[in-house]
Queue: 2 jobs
Job 1
Amino acid sequence: MDAKDILGLQKTSFPSAQEKKPRAPKEPQRKPDGVSREVYALTGGVGMAPLMPTIEASHLKRRPAVEKEKVAWQWLPFTSSARTDNLQLYHWVRVVNNVPPTGDYDFAKYNTKVDVLKYTDEEYEKYLTEPTWSREETDQLFELCQRFDLRFIVIADRFPTARSVEDLKSRYYSVTRALLIARARSFDEVAGNPLVKETFNAAHETERKRALSALFSQTKQQERKDAEVLAEAKRIMESRAANKNVEEAGAPTSLPNAAVPADGVSPLSNNLPSSAATHPAAAANTSIPDTLRMLKVYLRTHALDQMVQAVTASAGIRMIKRVDQTLQDLGVNLKPKVPTKAVCAEHLELRNEILTLLNIQKQLQNKEAEVLANRESSFTEAPTTPKVPCS
Amino acid sequence: APIILSDSPPAAAAGAEPALTAAQKALRSKPARAPEDPDKKNKKLKDVEISFPIVYGTISFWLGKKASEYNSHKWTVYIRSATNEDLSVIVKRVVFQLHPSFTNPTRVVEQPPFELSESGWGEFEIAITLYFHSDVCEKRLDLFHQLKLYPEEDAGPQSTKKPVVVETYDEVVFPEPTEAFFLRVQNHPAATVPRLPPGPMELMSHDKKRFDTKDHSLSQWFSNFSEADELLKLAAARQQVQAHIAKLRRQLSMIEGMPQQSRVISGPGQQFGHG
């Protein structure tokens, strides 16, 4: 009579060695794919990254069809149309199926040349004579131009007589231009040619280069001064734009060419009328508040109180506190100990003056903050350019 | 503005009651109507201001041995002319309103000296109300004073000999006095008139009672109120402020004129490269 039988409970499930569960032979822990056997053994499988291959082998590009063709590399001679001599050069060539590549040398196409015009004697006599240039010199110039592809620095170096780059350029461009115009049947034909359209401005070029070298050799101090001047100029421009109604009697802010600061900063004269209109202080104590007018009799202290209130009515509570604080700092009683008529008058005047002072202080603070903000903003806008003069 | 010291009496009159002319006497005794000149009496003088410098306050003595719990101090509250002249020239009566714990807290004083003495233990606010003569002003004027019995903390133990004195200076201003009133008081030493009185001060006649406080029993404790000190201090302060204003104005105009050059200290050298 098992109690559990009566209660209907199940028999306990003690594994009293009843069934031998068919056990699959447990493999020794299977090594996961993607990890080499040794690594796995070393690490014990702990702390490994998620075992997912990140690069699918199938995603990689198939190597181009290598199978069909036979590719070999050969050391072969070649010719280039860019060369005028008969120098024999060699290079590695990828030969496919025993067929060497044909065609010009790949890089020959980069051998550009400038079309330097050649003039005849007749043309020279007719159009190209120039007092400062002899025929020989011009010939030499053009020969060098042809040879060096208009690289005037090199040409200038090699020019037999000493002439500046601008000079050479000037001569070349003017000669070429004259030739073009002379040879063209009508002016319109060559009007589009840049050589014709623009003339070479030697003076400008000289100046430009001089300025550039000056800029390059500026001292740090001059740099700073320039920055200031430019910032100031900008500020003036802005204020002018803002105050369109303020008529300027020619305020010559000599905006320096950024390229011509060599002699230091040119002083700015600013004719902007001073807008420092001080806040008009409250009316003097001669204006009696209406409340006092009504009274047939009053105490002097009461009158003073009323006047003080009238004066500080427009100012905020903060201003009133500041006035009181200032009075204390000056060692003055907030309410006079001996309030005679004179004392009260002086007291009131003092309060007025303190108000004026505080207002000017605030104005000054605002102005300074404004200027500071302007300067900072102008600094952040300026780009830094590399200090390399180029011609 | 007069500089008034209590112990230097003004030029001629030594604590005087003005000698009244017949007309003035008539005016005084018949405030309602004057036979001679009704217009004159009521005409208001617009640009003339009459003021009376006053001092009001309390003096309190510790009773010492005689002090009890409810009666530790004896004190006097009063209002006097700042030069110890006779205030009854304008003041008809003074009403002192005491703390309700006093019997009959409303105390009326009809003649000079306008004061009230009491004893007690507590400090409270006393209301002092001035009623003027009818030709002076029909409105009353209220002042308030805090009775102080105990000395400051660092003053040491109380003494029966040395009282606690608190006085306040002020001025009673009549902005538009009637001509009659003006004429009556313009030469009175208690009054301050903006322009000097045309004639010499009126002399006192001997047999008049003296209603000033110059020889008051407590006069030794009266304070000297000198406007000179305060004027000096105010003038110095004003000068300071004015100088400061001028300096700031210069700075301001400099900023708006030629700014940066003088003010830039150091900044990163930025290059504005063109070219």
Job 2
Amino acid sequence: MFSSSQFEPNSAFSGGGFMSSQAYESSSSTAKNREFQGLVPVTVKQITECFQSGGEKSGLVINGISLTNVSLVGLVCDKDDSKVTEVRFTLDDGTGRIDCKRWVNETFDAREMESVRDGTYVRLNGHLKTFQGKTQLLVFSVRPIMDFNEVTFHYIECIHFYSQNSESKGQQAGDVTQSVNTTFQGGSNTNQAVPLNPVVSSQNDGNGRKNLDDMILDYLKQPACTARQQGIHIDEIAQQLKIPKNKLEGVIQSLEGDGLIYSTIDEYHFKHVEL
Amino acid sequence: MDTTSPAVFVNGALLRRYIGQKVRAVIQVIRSEIGSVVGKSTDDQQIVVKGSPQPPLTSYLEVIGIAESDNTIRAEVWTNFGDSFDAQNYNELCKLANGEFRHLFI
């Protein structure tokens, strides 16, 4: 999903100059920072807020992720379809208003826009653009909402996306980014220094939440464990920490990739790396 | 909508915090009278919504308007939210939108 060819030139520059300081906070998420092609659910407030802090040149950055494509839910207002090829309207999602534009080139697009009236709740997917200081949404998909649980869902998704990204600024919680981390490790040596950053920031993570990595490391650091030559079996770790083994496996792999633990007599026994 | 100010997600309990301000709430219609609709908020409190919505009304209505008292809203916008709506979900959203994640909304 994240092509490494896109990645390497940036790391060769050490992320300096081109990318903002967010590059240092998270190495494997720089792939995410650069071009997050996914669709991010946001509220209009999030858009207007981040634009004010970022400025046009940096592009729109929300929670350290450079966004282009967003998904919104709200009420359509001021629909203006006087022009044949273009439909403009304002979307009001209760947190703010944003101008939207939809190019209508095919009959499919025209039909889609016909069902959208003032006062209709719609789900919009579009591309954020700033033009002459104003943020605009170039919409590529509009769908009227049929089941209004979607409205509730959208806002909850915004909250979820936001909290997922702000609590894991340096250390990624998601499996996708963990796998990016490990494949990246296999890359060129110039990248060696960079991956250590997420490790450092996660250890310094002051929010008090004991994440899985810390729990495993703490367990393995105990003198009783370090004394054991053959290391600790993953089953024992699962038993002692009372965490299912499948949850541990991914985390152990990334800890191993980061050089914090190593496997001993076989691939199921691990010991903490003593520096 | 004539006002551009953001509308806070409220349920019955949160309504009193925003008297005089623009709020949005989903209510389950109990009965509709002339000039107002009596409904139940997502946390089971009785709310009176002043205004005349366009019939037909579905079981759930979203109203956006100004909070007049701790159990009255003067609605400006009415939206039919259908007959199957998860009020509990919405209630939890109200709590989150007024709590930890306020800054995403207001």
